[in-house]
Amino acid sequence: MITVIADDLTGAAEIAGICLRYGIEVAFGIDSVPEKLAQVSIIATDSRSLSEDEAYKMHLQLANKIIQNNSNQIIFKKCE
């Protein structure tokens, strides 16, 4: 399973579209880990509008929650 953390909604939608094009099941969340299980979970954040420190803290909290839910995850940070 892969979880993608995107720094904005359009980046998250881009990854979701690519996955769907290839028939990969996708779950989508905004600022939170999706409840539904899927091959690829995508989290859209609005971290571009945050300070560097605030964005770091947000992404660290999300990564910790992802790992708590399933320590055998691949986490991909999508930027730009």
Layout of helices and strands, plus pairs?
Blueprint lengths: L1 E5 L2 H13 L4 E5 L9 E5 L7 H18 L4 E5 L2
Parallel strand pairs: 1-3, 1-4, 2-3
What does this structure look like?
With 80 residues, this protein is an alpha/beta fold. It has 2 helices and 4 strands. The protein has helices at 9-21, 52-69, and strands at 2-6, 26-30, 40-44, 74-78. A 4-stranded parallel sheet has the order 2-3-1-4, sandwiched between helices. The longest helix is centred in the C-terminal third of the chain and has 18 residues, at 52-69. The model has no long low-confidence stretch (mean pLDDT 90).
Brief sketch in words of this structure:
This protein is 39% helix and 25% strand. It contains 2 helices and 4 strands. It starts with a strand and ends with a strand.
The major β-sheet equals: 4 strands, parallel
Which regions contain 5 or more consecutive residues with pLDDT less than 50?
none
Number of helices: 2
For the termini, the CA-CA separation is 23 Å
Structural class: alpha/beta
Q: How many beta-strand elements?
A: 4
Strand content: 25-35%
Mean of all residue-level pLDDT scores: 90
Radius of gyration over C-alpha positions, nearest whole angstrom: 12 Å
List keywords for this structure.
single chain; 80 residues; alpha/beta; 4 strands; 39% helix
